[in-house]
Amino acid sequence: MRYSNPISRRLLVSIIVVSAAFVAGFLVLSAADFLQGSWRFVVLVLAMVIAIFIILSYFVNKINKIIGDEADEENAEIRRELTQNIAHELKTPVASIQGYLETILDTPDMEPDTKRQFLERSFAQTRRLTSLLQDISTLNKMDAKAPGYKVEAVDICKLVDSIGKETALQRENAGVAFRNILFPPIIIQGDYSLLYGIFRNLTDNAVNYAGAGSTIMITASIEDDAWHFVFRDNGAGVPPEHLERLFERFYRVDKGRSRKLGGTGLGLAIVKNAVHIHGGDITVSNIDTGGLRFDFTLKINNFKEKSRSSARKKLKSPRK
User: Fold this and answer.
1) Residue 133 and residue 86: Cα distance in Å, rounded?
2) Which CATH class is domain 1-146?
3) Under a CB-based contact definition with an 8 Å cutoff, are residues 216 and 179 in contact?
4) Tell me: the pLDDT tens digits for 123-166?
5) What value does the mean pLDDT take over residues 75-102?
6) What is the CATH number of domain 151-306?
7) Roughly what angle, to the nearest 10 degrees, separates helices 112-143 and 38-106?
8) Is the fold of 1-146 the same as that of 151-306?
9) Residue 247 near residue 270, CB atoms below 8 Å
10) Pick from 137, 153, 103, 174: which is nearest to 264 by CA?
């Protein structure tokens, strides 16, 4: 075994030195008949154990400090990268709005139809900017694990049915069909807005990227204390090398197309976080016959379990 870490090498050397010193001391003292009394042998063994314990404690503290420093450094790097991504994403719509408005101001005799076209494009960019800020705010609340989730009994069948109706025109324009194969009752104790965000973002994602002629299908089955949902389409799918990064913030398979469609690059990240908040997990895979498949679970009453766990902790904690 190779010990490339300096801390590991020093720890190993220290234990070897202590053990060697113990053996040498044992041999010397045995030759001098010092260990004839059993209590002296016990004292020597205890001394060795205490020495090794002190060494281990020292190096454990060192290792913990290094791990903590590395974690802080990694978190700082993630924050820097996220800040850069946010700045880049905000810059694009702001620059577009600025360009259109400057052109209008610098061209007093601009044709009314052209001016209206520029204003409509500016308005479209403001809507994209609003969506981006809303998604960033949603993720920040999730990351902060902020209290205030409104827990209620959510009928998933009705929720998905309403999303199907809301996206009817959008799907018609894209040529995407919608099949809600959920059989009531499917009741989840959770936050309605977060649960809505899961199914709405998955639907929007499929409508935008599955392709004309594809069909969205949603099914579910009960598994112990959770519902297992399958959200799939029979569209274009995603190149395999992109699958594991689909839930990353601001990650896009086709950046140009995503921005053209008004995507923020945060929809699937919101889906993943919302699923986790409801005690579940989510995976994505390509379907052999074509299309993309999301498998995810939602606990029937994850918030009740959390409140029980919190209550148990309070009962165990000593009173001040």
Assistant:
1) 9
2) mainly alpha
3) yes
4) 877 776 776 677 667 767 666 655 567 889 999 999 999 999 99
5) 66
6) 3.30.565.10
7) 170
8) no
9) no
10) 137
